[in-house]
Amino acid sequence: MPLVIPGMRFAHTTVDSIVSCFIMLRILLVTDTEKPIGELRDALSQHGYEVLGDVASPVALLASVERQRPDVVIIDTESPSRDTLEQLAVMNGAAPRPVVMFSHDADQQLIRAAVGAGVTTYMVDGLAPDKLSPIIDVALARFAEETRLRQRLADVEQQLADRKLIDRAKGILMDKRGMSEAEAFETLRSLAMKQGQKLADVARQLIAMADLLG
Fold it and tell me: In this protein, which residues make up the domain named ANTAR (predicted)?
């Protein structure tokens, strides 16, 4: 059963994971407001999080994430600007992280835009220090589930692409060598085993050779 400690990483109760669960979650703060960020920094520290630093300009977000490799990004804003959302989308494409956004803007269109840009949890009415840990835990859980679903979708798409390659390669062998479908598949499978390659990779090579030879 998972061992969960507020403000710490999730882990299973093995020796290695018991050690790792005491590693503090690393938080990167982002703000585009004039108010001091000290309150948020202090609240995070009191809850056992490691605050890596503050990012005052959205343009610096991706570079900061790639350099400091935070576990979670927290954004404190009156209302997220277009620049902030654009840079979030860039970060989400290059180095995705769970993102918690504290905002005072409850506009539904803006919330949808924020979620589309990569915000995992959008909190209206600002920061509530006593709710930080559950908010971050929810963001981590949502991000993990979204990552799992994206990976599953990518796997399905790759399987479909591989199947198309294999079917095309079988067609080439059936057309050029007069093989049956079963014989063509067995030929591809034998080549893949001999060369220590995936079936789809062998199919891709055969297709490329057939295209080259015309």
Answer: 146-207
What residue numbers bound the domain in which 54 lies?
A: 15-127
Is 5 a domain residue? no
Residue-level pLDDT, tens digit, the chain, 214 residues: 333 334 444 444 444 444 344 568 999 998 876 665 667 788 888 888 999 988 888 888 999 999 999 999 999 888 888 999 999 999 999 999 999 998 889 999 999 999 999 999 999 976 667 788 899 999 999 999 999 999 999 999 999 999 999 999 999 999 999 999 999 999 999 999 999 999 999 999 999 998 888 6
The pTM is what?
A: 0.70
Contacts of 98 (CB under 8 A, 6+ apart): 71, 72, 73, 120, 121, 136, 139, 140, 142, 143
